[in-house]
Amino acid sequence: MLTVDGITVRFGGITALDGVGFTVEPGTAVGLIGPNGAGKTTLFNCLTRRCTPDAGTVRFAGEDLLALAPHAVAGRGIARTFQNLGLFPRLTVRENVMVGAHSQGRTGHLAAALRLPGVRREDARLRHRADELLQRLDLADVADHPATGLPFGTLKRVELARALAVGPRLLLLDEPVNGLSHGEVDQFADLVRAVRRDLDLTLVVVEHHMGFVMGLCDKVVCLDFGRKIAEGPPEQIQRDPAVIEAYLGVAA
Ligand SMILES: Nc1ncnc2c1ncn2[C@@H]1O[C@H](COP(=O)(O)OP(=O)(O)OP(=O)(O)O)[C@@H](O)[C@H]1O
Hints:
alpha/beta; Rossmann fold; 2 domains; six-stranded mixed β-sheet; four-stranded antiparallel β-sheet; 10 strands; globular; binds adenosine-5'-triphosphate
């Protein structure tokens, strides 16, 4: 279980998050919605230790995540995708996915630098794991292609593969369908549902595409100006007057 409690983040005079709390049960998908600037990305950054809150706690599987160094988060089975894609343009698709898998590698950096026995075996293992994911996400045909120059919809799948290579239990998706066409959104939703089921993932999804969020998530949390204004099942959130007002600027 992921438990977020009383998270407050200030940037100078701006309160980006103001006492936000919610829980994510294992195996469920939670959507994080809210207008631009509501604090969604800042919250993701707290969960992955890119940002240290001024107050509040984050616990995952009983462990205090805020006590961890940022690089230790992946080792706890937490992975994320990035709004603007976290890929290396000149590396091939396979290499990009292997970068994700490397955070789970068993041999240390020193052993790798010295090319000690075991490193080559480890590389082969990570490559095999990357290839399995590429197959699963229909990316095998572009495995040796550099990321640059590939269609945006394909890069979104590579980004997902890179995050899955960490071997996560908790997967954080930051605007996964932003910039995709209508048909691509439906395909991506089917893909996320399938990998979630197959890999027994817990999901937290930030997304402006309401159809995607409402179709995928068991629960939705709505932020506005850094505060939680609503939390509940998708059908309840869609009718919530505070949510409608936050998006439209008028009461329902
Ligand atoms: N590093 C930073 N320094 C200063 N202010 C920041 C920083 N990061 C975020 N903010 C501010 O914090 C608030 C919340 O921003 P955040 O990016 O978390 O919102 P968001 O809900 O993800 O928005 P969007 O939907 O546009 O991505 C905004 O007012 C933003 O300008």
